[in-house]
Design a protein that fits this description.
The structure holds 2 protein chains of 2 kinds. By secondary structure, chain A is mostly helical. Chain A has a domain of 224 residues. In chain A, 72% of the residues lie in helices and 1% in strands. Chain B is mainly α. Chain B contains 12 helices and 2 strands, in the order αααααββααααααα. Chain B is globular, with a radius of gyration of 20 Å. Chain B starts with a helix and ends in a 10-residue tail after the last helix. The chains are: A mainly alpha, B mainly alpha. Chains A and B meet through α5, α10 and α12 of A and α4, α10 and α12 of B. Chain B: This is Branched-chain amino acid ABC transporter permease. Chain B: It is found in: Cell inner membrane. Chain B: Its main location: membrane. Chain B: It comes from Sediminicurvatus halobius.
C-alpha cells in the first residue's frame, strides 16, 4: 500500500518535472524554468545530505562548504581559462564541464576526507557542531582570498560548455540538471540497498551490535560522508553555472541550515523527500514573496506546523502513515 | 603591556556576554535535552526592547529591565506554545521547528522596528572611562559588563547549588521520570528554567547592544559562537560554559589583535595583515576542531 502510493507520487513528480518547460513556455512563464532549475540543484545537494543524515545519522551542519568548494572550483577554473593565467603546472584552467565538474566533486571530496576523519571521532550534537566549525573555516578562508574576489565573490564570465557545446541556459540546462538529479537519485537508491548501505543503516541503528558482528562503523561512515560531499560539490558546480556567480555566502552556515531544512521538510531518509522539500521550499518562497514583503512571517510558523503535525515531512504525509524508508 | 591588559579585559567582556548566552542554552539542553536555535532570537529581542526603552526614557536601567522582561516573557511563551511539544522528539525536529521560529522572530522585528539598525546610547555615568593603571583609561561600561557577568554567574551558582529550586533543576537534569514521580510539577519547572535562560539571553542582548548594530538577524552570529562555547565546554555543563566562554572570548579578541603582528615576523607586512585577519576569524573554529579532535565530548563533558 505504502509502496504503491510512493511509486505513484514519484511517477507524478518525474512526469511533472519532464513536462514543465513546454508547459511553462505555453503559459508564457519561462521564469518558472529558472526557478525550478534552482530547486533541482538544491534538491541534488539535499539528496546528498539526506544520504548521510538519514541513513548514517551523520547530521552535517557544514555541507555548504562542499557546495561552495564545488562552485569555486568551476569559478576559479573559468577565471584562469578566461585570462589564460597558469593555475597548476602550466595548465590554465578550463570552462569545459566534463573537466570542471568531476574536479569540483574531487575537490569537495578531498576536503571531506580529513574533515570526516576528525569529525567522526565525535557523535550526536558534537558531530553537528564540529562539521559546522569546518564549514565556517572554508567560509572565512574564501572571504579573505582576495585573488578570487574575497567577500565580493567571483563572476563567471564564461559559462561551462558541455563537450564543447553551450547548453547551460533555459530548458537545455534544466533537462541537464533534471537528468543528473535522477541519475544520482537512482544511484543512491542502489547504494542504500547495497551491502554497504545496509551496514551504514545498521551502524545508525546500533553501532555496538554492528561492532559485535565484526563491522567497524568508521570506514563505512567516512566513505558515505566523502561520497555525500562529492555529490554536494557537483550541485555547487551546477549552481555556479546557474547563478553565473560564486561568492562566499554559498558557504555560510545558514546555507547548511537551509539544506538541512529542505531534507527535514521533505522527509528524512526517504531520498525522494529532499526533492519534494526543495521544490516546496523554493516555490513557496517565490509565491510568498509576491504576496507579501514579510513572507518569512508566514514561512516560519509554517515550518513549525510541519514539525508539529507532519512528523515525517512531506513524503511522510504523502505516504499516509509515518515510517522511514530503509 | 598596556595594550595587552586592555585586550585581555575586552576578551573577558566578550566572554561574559557569551557566558550569559551559553549558561541559558546549556541549562535548557542539559535539563530538557532540547536544542533551541531560537535562543539567539531572545538575545535580539532583549537588545531591541532595551534600545527602544532607553531611547524613550533615557534610563539605561529601565532599558535593561525591559530587555530582560521582554526576552523572558517571549521565551516562556515560546516554550508553552511550541517547544513543550518537542521535548520527547528527535533533535532534528527541534532544529527544524526552532529554525522556523528564527524566521518568524527576525521578520517580526523587521515589521515592528523596520530595517534600519538601532543604536543604544549610554548615559554619562556609564559612558566614561576609569583609570585602571596610572595613565591608562578603560571604558566603564565594559567593566560593568564584566561585573554583571560575574555577579550573574555567582547568583546562578547559588541558585543551582544552594536552593530547593536548584536541587529540583539538578534532579530534573539527571532523571526527569523520577522527579516527576516525586510530585514535582515538571511542566512548570521546565517553563521556569526556560524563562530563566531567556532572561539571561535578554540581559546579554542589552549588554551587547552598545557595541553592535541592533538589527534583525543579529542573534544568529552570537548563537553560533554560543554553540561553539558550549560544545567546547561540554554540553550541559555550567562549568564547561564558563571555561568555554572565557576561552573563546579571549582567543577571539587576542587573535584579532596579535595574529597579524605575529605573522609579520615571517611574512611581508601586507601578506601578514591579510593572512592574519583571515586566521583571526578562523581562530575559534580551529580551536573548537582541535578540542573536539582531542576530547570528543568537550572539556567538561561526561565521558561515554
Amino acid at each position: 500500500m505504502r509502496a504503491d502510493r510512493r511509486l505513484l507520487a514519484a511517477a507524478v513528480l518525474v512526469v511533472g518535472l519532464l513536462a514543465l518547460p513546454p508547459l511553462a513556455s505555453a503559459f508564457g512563464n519561462p521564469y518558472l524554468v529558472t526557478l525550478v532549475t534552482r530547486a533541482l540543484i538544491y534538491a541534488l545537494a539535499a539528496l546528498a545530505l539526506d544520504f548521510v543524515m538519514g541513513y548514517g545519522r551523520l547530521v552535517s551542519f557544514g555541507h555548504a562548504a562542499f557546495l561552495g568548494l564545488g562552485a569555486y572550483t568551476v569559478g576559479i577554473l573559468n577565471t584562469h581559462a578566461l585570462q589564460a593565467l597558469p593555475l597548476v603546472g602550466g595548465w590554465s584552467g578550463s570552462n569545459e564541464a566534463l573537466v570542471a565538474w568531476p574536479l569540483a566533486m574531487l575537490v569537495a571530496a578531498a576536503y571531506a576526507l580529513p574533515v570526516g576523519a576528525i569529525s567522526l571521532r565525535t557523535s550526536g550534537v558534537y558531530f553537528i557542531m564540529i562539521t559546522l566549525a569546518f564549514g565556517q573555516l572554508v567560509f572565512y578562508l574564501f572571504n579573505s582570498l582576495s585573488a578570487y574576489g574575497g567577500q565580493d565573490g567571483l563572476p563567471l564570465w564564461l559559462p561551462n560548455t558541455v563537450a564543447g557545446r553551450e547548453m547551460l541556459e533555459g530548458p537545455a540546462f534544466y533537462y541537464l540538471c533534471l537528468g543528473i538529479l535522477l541519475v544520482v537519485w537512482a544511484f543512491l537508491q542502489r547504494v542504500v540497498r547495497s551491502p554497504f548501505g545496509r551496514v551504514l543503516v545498521g551502524c545508525r541503528e546500533n553501532p555496538r551490535r554492528m561492532r559485535a558482528l565484526g563491522y567497524r562503523p568508521y570506514p563505512y561512515q567516512l566513505a558515505a560522508f566523502v561520497l555525500s560531499a562529492a555529490l554536494t560539490g557537483l550541485a555547487g558546480a551546477l549552481l555556479a553555472n546557474q547563478q553565473t556567480f560564486v561568492s562566499p555566502s554559498l558557504m555560510h552556515w545558514s546555507q547548511s541550515g537551509e539544506l538541512l531544512v529542505i531534507v527535514l521538510l521533505g522527509g528524512l531518509a526517504t531520498l525522494i523527500g529532499p526533492i519534494w522539500g526543495a521544490l516546496a521550499l523554493l516555490v513557496l518562497e517565490e509565491v510568498l514573496v509576491t504576496v507579501t514583503e514579510h513572507w518569512q512571517l508566514v514561512l516560519g510558523p509554517l515550518l513549525v506546523l510541519v514539525v508539529l503535525f507532519f512528523r515525517n515531512g512531506l513524503q511522510g504525509a504523502l505516504d499516509g502513515r509515518g515510517a522511514r524508508d530503509d | 603591556m598596556q595594550l595587552f591588559l586592555e585586550q585581555v579585559l575586552n576578551g573577558l567582556q566578550f566572554g561574559m556576554t557569551l557566558l550569559l548566552m551559553a549558561s541559558g542554552l546549556t541549562l535548557v539542553f542539559g535539563i530538557m535535552n532540547l536544542i533551541n536555535l531560537a535562543h539567539g532570537s531572545l538575545f535580539m529581542l532583549g537588545a531591541f526592547a532595551g534600545a527602544t526603552v532607553v531611547a524613550w526614557s533615557g534610563s539605561f536601567l529601565l532599558g535593561l529591565l525591559a530587555g530582560v522582561v521582554t526576552a523572558g516573557l517571549a521565551g516562556m511563551a515560546m516554550e508553552a506554545l511550541v517547544l513543550r511539544r518537542l521535548y520527547r522528539r528527535d533533535h532534528l525536529d527541534q532544529v527544524l521547528a526552532t529554525f522556523g521560529l528564527i524566521l518568524l522572530f527576525n521578520e517580526a522585528v523587521r515589521v515592528i522596528w523596520g530595517r534600519r539598525p538601532l543604536g543604544l546610547t549610554l548615559p554619562d555615568w556609564l559612558a566614561g572611562s576609569v583609570e585602571i593603571l596610572p595613565g591608562v583609561g578603560y571604558p566603564v561600561f565594559r567593566l560593568a559588563v564584566i561585573a554583571v557577568g560575574l555577579a550573574v554567574m555567582a547568583g546562578l551558582w547559588w541558585l543551582v547549588m544552594r536552593t530547593r529550586l536548584g536541587m529540583r533543576i539538578r534532579a530534573g537534569a539527571s532523571d526527569r521520570e523520577m522527579i516527576g514521580a516525586l510530585g514535582v510539577n515538571i511542566t512548570a519547572l521546565y517553563t521556569l528554567v526556560f524563562g530563566l535562560g531567556a532572561c539571561l539571553a535578554g540581559l546579554a542582548g542589552v549588554m551587547a547592544a552598545p557595541f553592535i548594530a541592533v538589527q534583525s538577524g543579529m542573534g544568529e552570529d552570537i548563537l553560533i559562537l554560543t554553540f561553539v562555547v558550549i560544545v567546547i565546554g561540554g554540553i550541559g555543563s555550567l562549568r564547561g560554559a564558563v571555561a568555554g566562554a572565557l576561552l573563546i572570548g579571549l582567543a577571539d579578541t587576542l587573535g584579532r589583535v596579535y595574529l597579524p603582528d605575529l605573522l609579520r615576523l615571517w611574512l611581508p607586512p601586507a601578506t601578514a595583515d591579510g593572512a592574519g585577519a583571515a586566521l583571526a576569524s578562523m581562530t575559534i573554529y580551529l580551536l573548537m576542531a582541535l578540542v573536539l579532535a582531542l576530547r570528543p565530548r568537550g572539556l567538561f563533558g561526561d565521558a561515554g
